[in-house]
Amino acid sequence: MRILVVEDSKVVSRILQHLIAQELDCEVDFAVDLASAKLLLEQKEYFLAITDLNLPDAQEGEIVRLVLSKQTPCIVLTGSLDSEQRKRLLQLGIVDYILKENRFSYEYVVRLVHRLQRNKNVKVLVADDSMVSRKFVRSLLEQHLYQVIEADDGNSAWDILQNQPDVQLLITDYNMPGLDGFGLILKVREKFSREELAIIGLSSDSDESLSARFIKNGANDFLQKPFVHEEFHCRVLNTLDSLDMLRKLWDQANLDYLTGVYNRRYFFGLFEEQIKQIKQKQGTLTVALLDIDFFKRVNDTHGHDVGDEVLVEFSARLKHFFGQHFTVSRFGGEEFTVAFKGLNEEKVFALMDKFRSQLEMKPIATSKGDMFITVSTGIAGLADDSLDELIQRADKALYDAKESGRNLVCIEA
């Protein structure tokens, strides 16, 4: 990613250079006037330009039109801005303007650039029966590089979310035919948690209670129409930053810090909730407990760093083999589990034995060279017992696999 900074103040340029180097992984070119910026824009393509509004050879904001003519997103820096200038800049289609007031102003610029970099991969669904309103919101979002999908009513929006679960933000109007904004949010929250999907409600209705009702029904935020560009962008930015933070917190609580697979806490939280339903529906749940053979030797001989490399690669192979359809977790140390909903012990045995066979044939590359490892596995199917008892029976089968020579798969007798 390459950024152009057009700024005649050496102090401001140094501040931006320092902050960008700290926070962003990108290349930066600097220009001090319109002429040098024009040369750079003719020679190179830029992801984004950060430009001072008034330059020594361009006092009327000509740099903004030049940047936008190259189809390059533009963030404007300025020491002052009257209402007419503000309107003209927003009508031109800039990303945002920032007043040069203090260090926080420049930190906001860098935060915005970082957000724009991520926005290229963020899908936003806009649900509104008014084409004019929908297109306006779309244009604002596209200025910030989001992938935008449109729906003309609540039912269409729900269908899109069913087929495209990677949508990260839903922006929905209140008054829509068929399924209104409230009804849509209620359906969405039954399927998508706050860590999966953020929601912003919109309405031109004068009812003062709407904002509270939207948020109580599951929205993250609410905007009253008509709204100004800046407020819209700030609300979207803050909502998505909060979504990122929620996801980080969820990951810290539920994923193993080293390998990235689910941790013991997540496994028990998930299946302790589900096990009653599985029993009531007379369903099937089979658990496989795996232990890397002689793993202590790896740590003792080569050190814990190499041991970590083995654990990371072993986890990656488990996820690749099972993770698309089944739940892979690390219980601690070199012990892992895979939970199979809907499969009996015999089918799980066949899968686990195939994994075991492939594992022993392909070495794991480490910083100390290739290493061949094997794994012992115990399998148990859910009977009339608790999750703890199910794990204990799988553990007994794992013990039998180790006692029988390791590199084996055993079903609990």
Automatic annotation (TrEMBL):
Substrates-to-products reaction catalysed: 2 GTP = 3',3'-c-di-GMP + 2 diphosphate
Domain GGDEF: 283-413
GO CC terms of this entry: plasma membrane
Keyword Lipid biosynthesis: no
Organism: Shewanella violacea (strain JCM 10179 / CIP 106290 / LMG 19151 / DSS12)
Molecular-function GO term, any one: diguanylate cyclase activity
Pfam families attached to this UniProt entry: GGDEF, Response_reg
Modified residues (4-aspartylphosphate): D52, D173
Gene Ontology biological process terms from the UniProt entry: cell adhesion involved in single-species biofilm formation; negative regulation of bacterial-type flagellum-dependent cell motility; phosphorelay signal transduction system
Required cofactor names: Mg(2+)
EC numbers on record: 2.7.7.65
First-tier enzyme category under EC: transferase
Keywords recorded for this protein, A-Z: Phosphoprotein
Chain ranges of the Response regulatory domain: 2-115, 123-240
Phylogenetic classification of the source organism: Bacteria, Pseudomonadati, Pseudomonadota, Gammaproteobacteria, Alteromonadales
InterPro entries in UniProt: CheY-like_superfamily (IPR011006), Diguanylate_Cyclase (IPR050469), GGDEF_dom (IPR000160), Nucleotide_cyclase (IPR029787), Rev_trsase/Diguanyl_cyclase (IPR043128), Sig_transdc_resp-reg_receiver (IPR001789)
Record protein name field: diguanylate cyclase
